UniProtKB/TrEMBL annotation:
Residues 1-19 form the signal peptide. This is Esterase. Keywords: Signal. Residues 248-546 form the Mannosylglycerate hydrolase MGH1-like glycoside hydrolase domain. It comes from the Bacteria. SUPFAM superfamilies: Six-hairpin glycosidases (SSF48208).
Amino acid sequence: MMPRLLAAAALLACLPAIAQDKNLYVRGGFNGWGTANALASKGKNIYEADILVGPGNHGFKLGSKDWSEEWVVDGSRGVTVTPDTAYRLETRPGPEDYLFVRRTGTYRFTLDASDPAAPQLRVVRLADQQAAGQADPHAGRQPVTMSWPTWDGKQETASFSTPDAGAALRSYTHSTTMDLRDPGPQHVQYSEQAGLPRVRTGNLAFDALFALAGFEMRQDSVSQIRDGNYNGGAPIPCECFATGEKWPYVWTRDLSYAADLGLAMLDPQRVRNSLEFKLSGWRAGLALASQVAGTKDGLQIVQDTGSGGSWPVSTDRISWTFAAEEVLRTLPSGERAAFARRALRALSNTIENDRIAAFDALSGLYMGEQSFLDWRDQSYASWIPGELAAMSTSKALSTNVGHYQALTLAARLAREQGEAARASRYEHWAANLKQAINARLWLKDAGMYSSLTAGHLDGAPLHKFDWLGQSLAIVTGVADQEQARSILSHYPHGPMGAPVIWPQQPGMPVYHNRAIWPFVTGYGLKAAARAGNVAVADAAYATLMRGASLNLSNMENLEWLSGQPLLLDERNPSLIGPVINSRRQLWSVGAYLGMVVDTVFGVSATDDGIALAPFVTAKLRRETFGAASEIALQDLRLHDRRIGVRLRLPAAGKEDGYYAIERILLNGKPADGTIRLVQLQEQNDIEIVLGKLVTGQQAIRRVQEDPYASGGATFGPREPAIASLMRGAGGVTLTFAREQGLVYSVYRDGKLVADGLRTGAWVDRNGGVAACYALAARDTASGNRSHHSIPRCVGASIEIGASDPRVVATIPASPPDAQFSMPRIKGWGRPGDRFAVERIDVATPGRYQVQLSYHNAANDLRLGTSNGVKWLVLKDAAGKAVAQGVVQMPHTPPATATTSAVYSTPLAADLKAGRYRIEMGDFYNMSYLDSNSSFSGAGGSKGPYNRVDIMGVRLLRTQ
């Protein structure tokens, strides 16, 4: 102990100098873990920092700029500090400490180093500034208010005023009574923007909220972007859309959905720039595997850093298509052709490589993580983060609909550019994919699509649902009219709107779980308008207006039952959330703009003009536009034309429904709902007269629960586990631990073979000699179901370790060490590396799954571009390939002394008895793209990275 104590004493002795030089900071969740709050000397070895802290349970540490020093209360555990209490600090790294704050206030962090051997930290809340001394932001004006009920029976109010209601471009003051997510004033000021449309509805609040969305769109319009993981954190020039206040970079899916919802019509050039930024070719000098498809430059859509090292764990880069299609409709004609050619090349390269790496021919579906729901523990089984290969091989509704959209657009562009063969190929693939989505993912008993299937060795569609996937299926036409009606009537809505997933995950904080995301609500609104569901549309209108008005911004997300930007739970601080929540989140801004332009006024772009299909519900007309006989959208600009749209409204009534179009006038002359560009003049006035009230669909599923409930009707059970699986004379016996109130289902090879089990054991008397089983739980009260357990198999397997003499590799196996109890081939996978296993004798014919036993510690489970993506070939004794394809080895949890290796995605092969050989070489991952050449982690500035540790191979018999 003596050397450690001497080292600590030496460090403590220099404490005053560190603080005096402002090298010590209070760093935490309240300041983005940055260095904005230096501890300043107050004399006599006392150092202070006063920090405005918003509500939340904030982790923090005292640390230096480079994190070489970390000082915490207890190096072995996190401590929640009590204000005005002194804590002795340890000057070593450790878990972060916490400060729980219920109400925004200024906190003074005081470091007392007068005794260098025992420095102390004290945190004190300073006296709050008196509200009475604050000026009324609406002074001298009569504000208009919007009031909204809260979950606990109270009211929150937003107020709006303008100094000149008759101004061509109004400015607004907007205040709220609700506690904001981040510290700051309870009001904001903004103005209507020249060059963007504005609305005049007779409701100042509605006009102001549209102006707020336009103002925030301009705030997100930047000339440079940055991310700490790229370009050394330095700015990157780009006339682009940044993702939000807390996300100052361009992310493929955020940009794409935002543009599709509303931004592409209003600023197509900036959207195009942003889309171009998300395209990349190969790095210079790469020697690529022969199996890689596409043009020589490799131009393709970038899958951002993410789960398990990115693509093809995640394949929703094809969401880029949604934005590209809208931009192609709205770009000036002189710019469209060049972008169309580039878009087709990028789409084609992406499609062809995704077909190789991520398409499952057996199901007809594409593999990969759910689109946007990319925090694994938020929406997947709890075992998935440690077994990301199983997430890689699952099939998600939202992602498959995105692939359908990509194929459809690529086919249209190919036909437009004279490539008939390519167009036919993609049209055929799109038709087959649509059929497969409906055959494999539609759950008749739920009246909705399954959001995802289980991964390999299971593959069953899960009774898990997400609002984005359901909505995209409707708006793209994957769902037919009857399916659309069913989805809209079955997907649950809380009092504040629809959650992004259903049911919720127990024991998880709010983010994707237990949350409303406005952009997803925007797609739900588009789906409701398309299918004529009035109740769902009205719920979406309320969600979007409520969120923007009470938060003074278009927020990233909200807790779904309370509508709060941060739901505090002092009893369960680990469940507080949303975990992250940014103002002016780009896709939320796009959703609000689209709500007004595309849905209320009904204006959308077509390939050669505009379509008009306003969806004004009786409730919206009655409660929002009640004083107006007409409402107007002014100065919408498209292809150098200016367009004004006036909606003439019928008298408000008490019945619910939506108003049908009675007639349309273009510049005083009759027109229909589709207007071509050649019909438009430089200045255009479109008058739409709304008439008959159509009942439409009124069905909506309502659910309600206490936001602080940790279980109950809105949650699904945690997935169970198979305790044992044994084959005997009477069949296969499966045992598991039961929980009260749950019944259980058994799946064999992805097929339901037992349901409603109430005992902890079941015998399969009909299973074959090889089969894989999974278990799911159902809550008898709510009917909600769990994710599936880890599959377990009873088939025999052939396992060959890395040091086996049959293994031939360019890197020899290393002996066991402190991390792994088995030999391994370390760091295998450079482009020239080869790996083979010879003389594999298969005695029993059947279907086998060939997998690598591996470890990939290139980056965190959540981050990076270093998924191990390789090409595996299984050859028979004559040297003929009997199976070949991509295998993935995503990032794995950190290695420990007890770490066991995990298995790669499988290569399926139907084998006869005989001798075989495995050969493995390179494919590619996202680190091979030039766009990642400045990435800070593995696969970045030091070159591509596609390496793993290999422990061996197995051939698992599954049939």
